[in-house]
Every structure is written in C-alpha cells, then in structure tokens.
Amino acid sequence: MDRAVEVTHEAVGITLLFDTFSLESRNLLESFKNAGAAFHAAVIEDDGFLPDDVMSVYGFFLGDYREADSLPGKPLYFNQIQIPDYWRIEGDNSSAKVMDRTRERARIFFTEPTHRRQVKIVDWLDDAGQVRLSEHYNRYGAIFCHTVFNKKGQKALRKFFDVTGREMIVENFVTGDILVRWQDKDWIFRSKTDFIAFFIRCAGLEDTAVYFNSLSYPFFASQALAPNGFRDALFWHEPVGDEIPGNMQIILHDQGTRAKRVFVSRKESYDRLIALGAPSDKVKQLGYIYSFVRENKHRPHILVCTNSENVGHLTELASLMPQMHFHVAAITEMSSKLMSAGRYDNVSLYPNVKMSVLDSLFEKCDFYLDINHEGEIVDAVHRAFLNNMLIVGYEETMHNAYYTADTNTFKESEYADMADALNLTLAMPHIIDEALAMQKKAAVAAEATDYMEILHL
C-alpha cells in the first residue's frame, strides 16, 4: 500500500474506536471527557447522527456535509421525502410509510427521539413487499448511503456518497471487498479490517493507543496495526459465560499485537473472568464517569414519561401515596383513560408536553417511576439517572435496567409494596441517599481518579 497517503489530523495519545455509538460507547466517551483526557473518537457503523466530536470511519472519506450549501443543514422531516405524484406519506410519532393507494411502497424510520419525526432510514419495497433499497439520511438532511438488497432480502452492496452525491465508497457484502475513492486514487481493500486500518492511517491516528469496547472489527483493527509503543486496551461491558471469549484470551495470553489490557465495567463480569483464570494484572474493573446534572433534594415529586395510556396502577399508587405528587408527561395527546387520572389532587397531567416544561419537570422531581408500558420516550430513564432522581420501576416495564438498582425493582403485582417503600423515604430521607448510592453502584459510576492509570498510557 502507498505509504505516502496524506494524513489530515494531528494525533493525540488516545483513539476510542467503537463498532457502533451504543449506550456503552457514549458512556465511555463521556468518561474520557470527564477525566480530562485528550483523545479522538471514531465509530465504524455510522447512523448519520454522530455528534461533532466523533468521527465516522466511512464518513471521513465523504467530506464535510456542514459546508454543503445545497443541503437543508438539518435532519429531514418525514413529509419532506421525495415521492412520486399521487403517492402519500402516513405516519405517527414512531414511524411512517409511503403509500400508493392501498399498497405500501416504503417504510420510514426515525432517529431518536422519534416524536420529532426526523428521517434516518427509508426502506423501499418491491412488488412482493421485500426491502430492495435502504436510503440512509444524516443529520444534514442528505442521503449519504444506499444499502442494496437481493431478492432474498440479503445485503448485496453498500454505497456511500460525498456532499455532491458522488459515489466515494462501495462495499460488496458478497466478496467482502471495499473500494474507496480518496485523494484522486482508487483504493481496494479485501477486508473491512484493512479498510479500518487505512482510515486510522489517513486520520493520522497511527501513533495513538486504540481503546475499543468490542471484540469484533475494532479488535481486528488493533491486531492489524503495527506496534507503536502504546498499549491498546479492551473495555468490556458484556456478561461473561462459561468461558473467556476467544478473542479476549488472545489479549490475556500476550498474543495481541498491541492490546495488552482489559477493563471491565460490570463487577459480576470482572469476578467471573477472575474465577475463570484471567490474570488479575491484566484485568481491572473500571466503571463510567457520568455527567450528573444536580443533587437529589428529597422533594416528594414523582415524574412519569409515557406515550401509552397503560401506566401500571397509576391511580392506585396515587391513592396509596397521598403525600407524593405525580407528574405524568406525554409528547402526544392522552387517551380519556389516562386523562381520568387527573381527578386525583396529587396527579398533574401534561399531554403534548413542551420540551421546556419537560426540562423543568426533570429539575423539579426527585423520583422517577419507570412504570409505563410500551416504548420509552425522551431517553427518560437515562436522563432521570443523570438528574440523580431515584428510579423505581416494575420488572415488566423497565426500559433501561442499566440505571435501576435491583433493590428498586418490583413486580407489577407488588405495586403496594412499591408504594410502601416510597412512603418510607418521606419519613426517613436518608433512605433516598442510600438508594441513590445503590443506583450509582448498579450503573458502575466511577471517579476521574479511577482513570489516571489509563491516561498515563
């Protein structure tokens, strides 16, 4: 390969390389920020809505969409999709579809939060109702990628486009080849691993330690890179089964090209690895440094966010906790069933809630009940966690168990026990602080000092 390729970034000591920008990836990114680290971050599978400070491995070769005057410069609203005359678009706050009279021609998927109806993917269907083409939109309102499917519904090709619509990357899922147009040359890579390693070179990240939280392509890329004097590391957040994952064993047995350490977020996973014989000098437990917004003030205000009328035993809880005030917010209209809960003096309802009002509710309430059936809205549980709200929920309705301590979880049939536990916090406020400590422990909250060893590389 031509070593004279021009690099376009000045390297710093650390590169965070993620498969996807998952919850765990976001938590790790935030932790390095809060630890005061200088680093680059890159995501392999870009959904088009990455934040400005996170690079896209594919998007790196597409140019800067922010500089394109021909684009909307913001996410595309669902009814702005181009469709043939006499076709129509139907949708709600979760998804939409393109209709040709009674025939469904396309399915429209929104980015989170879905109530904003901002387009992320449009799946176009053939006459048999099979997806044949996915159009991927980014946060600037542009189609930056096409995924082409064969008649069996299997991925065949993926094409990426620059800001002018030129085809810059073609990925063949059948052969595994990736063709890249870069610096007026065509580059052919026989594997995704080779392509990712090429990105690391082009981005000027060769002389950094690569930290990754997946044992797939980020690990493969670490293995493919030449040693540079830094120690790469795996940040593991998944459960561990009956044996240590094979690729992790490569690291633990000193067979990694550059990766030499494993950091494990969950205590149970760490304990399991040690029990399976992982060397304690190579495996360390390390949580996340969260950006908490405020302290809990022990106020008797409860928040529930829902897009469903099915809020488990809401009226019974209101009756059992007369000293608590319930604030129930929805980003849509509320059904008559849910509106009827407003007859209780300690229940306030907020249909079609404005974001400014919702912001004030997250500041005002010190308890969050995760008791609504169906989907989560406005990233409510995560947001409640960052606001140091005590999160209590039903096992059957929990939307993000990561941020809820087991001690704060009840079966829905045990709603009376939940009410008793919450009433006790009013009589004994120190219980709230103890429960919050358990909540943070469950989410493996860490301090900046815990990251000092890593930052010394």
Automatic annotation (TrEMBL):
<comment type="subunit">
    <text>Forms a heterotetramer with 2 subunits each of GtfA and GtfB. Part of the accessory SecA2/SecY2 protein translocation apparatus.</text>
</comment>
<dbReference type="InterPro" id="IPR014268">
    <property type="entry name" value="GtfB"/>
</dbReference>
<keyword id="KW-1003">Cell membrane</keyword>
<keyword id="KW-0472">Membrane</keyword>
<dbReference type="GO" id="GO:0005886">
    <property type="term" value="C:plasma membrane"/>
</dbReference>
<dbReference type="GO" id="GO:0031647">
    <property type="term" value="P:regulation of protein stability"/>
</dbReference>
<comment type="function">
    <text>Required for polymorphic O-glycosylation of the serine-rich repeat protein in this bacteria. A stabilizing protein that is part of the accessory SecA2/SecY2 system specifically required to export serine-rich repeat cell wall proteins usually encoded upstream in the same operon. The GtfA-GtfB complex adds GlcNAc from UDP-GlcNAc to the substrate protein, attaching the first sugar residue. Stabilizes the glycosylation activity of GtfA. Has no N-acetylglucosaminyl transferase activity on its own.</text>
</comment>
<comment type="similarity">
    <text>Belongs to the GtfB family.</text>
</comment>
<dbReference type="GO" id="GO:0017122">
    <property type="term" value="C:protein N-acetylglucosaminyltransferase complex"/>
</dbReference>
<comment type="pathway">
    <text>Protein modification; protein glycosylation.</text>
</comment>
<protein>
    <recommendedName>
        <fullName>UDP-N-acetylglucosamine--peptide N-acetylglucosaminyltransferase stabilizing protein GtfB</fullName>
    </recommendedName>
</protein>
